[in-house]
Description:
The chain starts with a helix and ends with a helix. The chain has helices at 4-30, 34-62, 72-102. It has a single domain (4-102), classed as Methane Monooxygenase Hydroxylase, Chain G, domain 1 (Up-down Bundle). The longest helix is centred in the C-terminal third of the chain and has 31 residues, at 72-102. The protein is elongated and about 55 Å long. Helices cover 84% and strands 0% of the residues.
Amino acid sequence: xxxxxxxxxxxxxxxxxxxxxxxxxxxxxxxxxxxxxxxxxxxxxxxxxxxxxxxxxxxxxxxxxxxxxxxxxxxxxxxxxxxxxxxxxxxxxxxxxxxxxxx
Length: 103
């Protein structure tokens, strides 16, 4: 199978990277650097997709049968993933507002 804690760290690391890239994209957009902001959002999406791929592997391994133990680290990873997804959605909207303001 796989080492659960090491696998879960893949969610935490990638989700954290995604969230950080989102906020850097927002800072760039705030300064009017939309090309840089768009590039950072693409990178954030790639990191989020990597985290989601790890989550999907865990769900597939569990098969809805409780095969994967729910640990505090796993809950923490899920929290990171969900907050990074929310950050990406909100930051994307804020960047759109900055674009409108700049036009």
